[in-house]
What we know:
homodimer; 585 residues; Nitrilase/N-carbamoyl-D-aminoacid amidohydrolase; Rossmann fold; 6-stranded mixed sheet; 18 helices; 36% helix
Amino acid sequence: MAQLRIALAQTNPVVGDIAGNAETLVEWTRRAAGRGAHLVVFPEMFLTGYPAEDLVLRSSFAEASIATLSEVAARLADEGLGDLPVVVGYLDRADLAPRVGQPKGAPLDAAAVLHRGRVVAKSAKHHLPNYGVFDEYRYFVRGDRLPIFRLHGVDVAVALCEDLWQEGGPVSVVAEAGAGLLVVPNGSPYETNKDDVRLELCARRAREAGCALAYVNMVGGQDELVFDGDSLVVDASGALVARASQFREELFVTDLELPEAAVELGEPSHDSYDAHDGTVITVERVLLSADPVEPYEPEPPVVAERLDDLAEVYHALVTGVRDYVRKNGFKSVILGLSGGIDSALTATIAADAIGPERVHTVLMPSRYSSDHSITDAEELVRRQGVNAQVVPIADIVSAFEKEIALTGLAAENLQARVRGMLLMSLSNEHGHLVLTTGNKSELATGYSTLYGDSAGGYAPIKDVLKSVVWKLAEWRNAQPGVPPIPENSITKEPSAELRPDQRDTDSLPQYEVLDSLLRDYVERDMGRDELIAAGHDPELVTKVIRMVDLAEYKRRQYPPGPKITPKNFGRDRRLPITNRWRERL
Amino acid sequence: MAQLRIALAQTNPVVGDIAGNAETLVEWTRRAAGRGAHLVVFPEMFLTGYPAEDLVLRSSFAEASIATLSEVAARLADEGLGDLPVVVGYLDRADLAPRVGQPKGAPLDAAAVLHRGRVVAKSAKHHLPNYGVFDEYRYFVRGDRLPIFRLHGVDVAVALCEDLWQEGGPVSVVAEAGAGLLVVPNGSPYETNKDDVRLELCARRAREAGCALAYVNMVGGQDELVFDGDSLVVDASGALVARASQFREELFVTDLELPEAAVELGEPSHDSYDAHDGTVITVERVLLSADPVEPYEPEPPVVAERLDDLAEVYHALVTGVRDYVRKNGFKSVILGLSGGIDSALTATIAADAIGPERVHTVLMPSRYSSDHSITDAEELVRRQGVNAQVVPIADIVSAFEKEIALTGLAAENLQARVRGMLLMSLSNEHGHLVLTTGNKSELATGYSTLYGDSAGGYAPIKDVLKSVVWKLAEWRNAQPGVPPIPENSITKEPSAELRPDQRDTDSLPQYEVLDSLLRDYVERDMGRDELIAAGHDPELVTKVIRMVDLAEYKRRQYPPGPKITPKNFGRDRRLPITNRWRERL
Lengths: 585, 585
């Protein structure tokens, strides 16, 4: 057996900031060297950030990625770090003649091994995900190489993210070609309960490959996606060895005992293998160092404590806000505070993400606002120390009503729009990012005003069902310190307060019942018959399907927010607008 | 040789309206029988409408399509139309075990042949487009069958849309298997100048297949897409025989002399062919009728007159508005009329699309509005007979300014937002669809207010560069009848009138110069070096790249409109929002 100390760089790259990400690579490699690591592994597409969407189709972007990879390899050597091999994801290009249907420039979701100033091996993702949030057939062509580099006597293979999730391909080739360790850079977005699936998957693939597996994931928010870290190492039997923290940047170091390579290295160094998925993969063997390291005392492996399910969701939301603000170059956020639970939770998430001093709230009472709407909001301001101002909307609404006659829903929407406009105006004047406060239950059923409460740049809780909003508020209040959310905001009956004595239940079913149905209809795409077979009340199914389908039109115009479940709105649920399909009701 | 009279059903299906589309199929088949046709061909995915986006992943939708196909076959026979074979596109499913990465339910972009009450042959699109507006790897699995049915002694093969655009696949198999006619149902969206490309393509594929080719395209608007019809027939040498009109529903009938089939039909009726693209295609032969029809006097072939380039664009815009209004169930539209060219052209397009009596305009003068902004708008109202009302915004703006202090851009945006809110309020009150009036040059450079002039359900000219806006206005005024657009709206210098003496050229370059640069940067994805090499001024390149990149964030929130060029905003230009990539400036 041979020893290796591996460092998994659970980092937070910025999409498009190739120079900044390269800087991070050098800095973290220096830290890994300081920790005595023999190998450092960065996430998928680390150099460009991920997902880079249509940027990967732009020539100048691909060229910058490729050039920077070589430059950073040379720089590592210049700075005395050349002997520490680095595995890093980047954007490359396949050497293919252009053809119809192939993405422009034949981009590759690639990984490289950097050593002694040079790029010594390259590969690219073989399996391309093209479901849910992923569009990778649009962006990439398939990789067909598996690098295996010998490091201190251990053969180390490199595969990428989706290569674990599908059958055949690099993992099955590792099983035949033999390796002591499989390292896997990932860009794997958070979804509720995905961590359990991920561990089971890594364990299964390690057994299949017949070697230990080191999984490194990125961390941080990127537009609608949140990456949760959760990097981990399993041994060849699939047993968990070490596991990094969730939602936090971390240089995660683990000592491993690994089998010495048995294969004789010689010419030719390339071999073709059946990948058991109808394709052929070429193994490319590279020798970095043949002899095992001198025996040393290993550090005990770390298994970070897991967050419980509500804590995970809360951290995902905070991470989403923090990185959307930072990566877009905002200094502060602004939001309307109604005294209700949705805006209270959103303000709390924002304060936890960027500090209360950078959170600006606006209380915008109307002629229909209850007294507690102001007092509950003021109580939250007092507890959290966020900035607050009061802007009454009655006179502005009157000015509109003097010019045009409005009734019913149009009059209700006007109030929501005046508030949205006030927030956007203050945002334009002072540079704050506008946060919207709508939850998933409201948005799914269309209980929201276009250009009103839905106006803003980021929607922190847009993928959180209302019943989960309450649970998160209670969870957050149960954490150490002053409970940030006034109890009255949690316990009072929800109301939009757009007309006298309005209650959410005037238009919507009880949220527990509604949310269970929305999970099945929106997230699981069940049809009417399936929903009824799953035990939902037929009359309610009819009503809710009608509401959700009618709300589709608005949803296409809704701004991005974080994604924490397998399905959310907008990009994930691409239904045509001019669409006459209705479930048979 | 044998004669065949073929009818190409250049129709306008509604996405999701399976029952309505089936009704249209029966009605048009009856008309084709009345015209003495021997074969009628409907467009791609006709039964479901196209593109159906994520609807194809819903079980109940796929089941309804498959069931309706059988029902409509039976109904045709019941109504005495069973002897006339029908080729029609629909949504089917492949019989595949589910696997990761495969779309849910393994949907097929399928075509069927209906005859004597039964579905006698099925196939599905082999090449799936996954570029530009197409996401078909997300939605479909590949078809691998080529039906060849013998009709009155002529072998007729069926391929689908993209199968023409890529090398290998069904067309190359037709060349080997032999056929007298290749019929191709299409859903091919309009782009400027695409008609020329389409004819050349059909000619080339006919020569390659060694037989005549009948190309039937759908017509009409579907959200961001507009289908232009332009169905056509070429002979085996690639020469144009007949060509249908553009942007109009039409049952297009053509008589053809075709070679009699030479292949002996017998068991087995299936043969496997190398598709020359790494796959294998199975030919499925079906006998409908062996003997040629009695000789008859053919009708002379029709080649419809072509629209010139500006007329094409104008028809595409009118079609987009008309179908968005109709397919979404609106009765009327509303828009702001500023006296400027953009709103004047938009109003004219709307009036041409649905009639001036269903167009509602609102004149919303502010303290900065010039006199001619009102008089030019009133002149348009007078010429076209659209509905009009005047709603001054000064008092509403003052009411806002009494509550919050706004300066500069924030104060300018407020005016645009008050106007957007008035239109949305009137829309909510009276049920009109709000049309926005922004053009592509403005939107690309961010010269637009989020939730202000960009607020609305449909943006008729969002993909039209400003220099083309002027050309379209002049073109429309040159048509027979009263020139609908006041000359002063065309000739005056453009201004947003959001502050005293404002001119577009305060912030933007001259539009001719700007638009040429936008074509290369936005539509052709050129990088900075390429743009300069193409002859653009380096300083202007720097400035415009900066403007366009900064406007990305807004664009993701912009509502849909028609698509008339290879690239537009939003869905086509998917750049991450939190993106730090900038062209090196």
